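Hi R.,

Here's the chain you asked about this morning:
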Amino acid sequence: MADWSEIEALKRIPLTKLFADDPERLGKYSADVSGIHFDWSKTHLTDEAIKAFEKLAKASDLAGKREALFTGQVINVTENRAVTHTAERGEGAKDDVASAQALHARMRALIDAIEAEALGPIRNILHVGIGGSALGPDLLVDALGRDSNRYDVAIVSNVDGLALEEAFKRFDPSATVLAIASKTFTTTETMLNAESVVEWMQAGGVEDPYGRVVALTADPDKAIEWGVDETRVLPFADTVGGRYSLWSSIGFPAAMALGWDAFSELLEGAAEMDRHFRLSALHENVPALAAFTDLLYTQAFGCETRGVFCYDERLRLLPSYLQQLEMESNGKGATIEGKPVGRPTAPITWGGVGTDQQHAVFQLLHQGTHLVPLEFVGVIEQADTLSEDHHKTLLNSMFAQGAALMKGKENPDDLARAYPGDRPSTTLLLDELDARTLGALIAYHEHRVFVSGVLLGINSFDQFGVELGKEMAKAAAKGGGDFDASTQDLIKRAFG
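And here is the predicted structure, written out as tokens:
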């Protein structure tokens, strides 16, 4: 087991002192990669900390495991699988890349056919999925598709019927394609939603609703058995995990809404970050530096949460996307060897949209008793067509929050108006928000999670923690299950 003693012994030096003691601090702890400026200077990262993490990385064989990721070796040991999401964007084992490219070509051919009205005059894409089968596509369409007039897309994950009915109110069943996204094609919520969409199509006069269904799955046989024609099944490899799957056919609704050129740019932006991560030394490797910073706060300073605040309306779904990516990947209690981890793993990831949250939760962040590392995300290029005052106010608010959290303000005569300061933040500043840059941003976060998982000695690519609740829900639906008195009472109250 790796020795964390040097990291646990690191002292928290005030941020203002770190700046005062090192005039070169900003240059040393910032970088520009793939159209994104990364600034860790307002964190407690130091040369000493980086050296300690590099030593831990060597002991954990991070370099070897990184290469294993990119060469298609089995690193998801609990499920005996390789991890091949990087191959979806062209960075992986030769056979994995070739397979992914062939499946992308299949997806593009179907998109071309739909655009040529092979399924009739289609205007709407109704995508049903849950978890990684919905969060990724939803982020892409919301961030990049606001000005697109190609197709109207609704992505429904919630099994609550109200969510589907909202889409039904928007769409004409005769002009709608149903995309079912499920790795196993057995996900309870997704399949129930899919059945309801088919019934809605039938009720709306569509003679062959199954002829309007596209399946996005790693189990094509299950999709065909359900009723999807083989020509409209878009497979992806079972070595691509759900929360890493937007690069595969799970990205179908995004490719429909944005166009294939944009989807290709998304993949290339991610591939650019892949190459940076794979080839760069750790002290200048942006995903590694981000992971080192995350671990510094969880392991040395006892932080239990991490906040992500996006100062761009188009990135409003990024915090939710990162919640799953980080907490499902690294929210583990056992090591790869099957032993207790014995230390904190993933922090609780949360966040929201910039200025809205300043008037909601920033009170705690500035004056509360919790130390919460923050990540600010902004975009330099103005996207709206209003006066530049809007965009300047937005970005200045973000910059000022980071400065105020770090500097604080003394007020010994009135503690209610005192600000402790020394509150850390990272800032990511995108030159512009386009498909290529968003691809790089998402890949950056994926590799950040991977590095943390390797150093913690856990498997970032299984998710057994979601299974027990699903098993018990199925038992409850069948009227069985060994439930406690409280749960039995709640079921009785709801259903009689």
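One quick note: The mean pLDDT is 97.

Cheers,
M.
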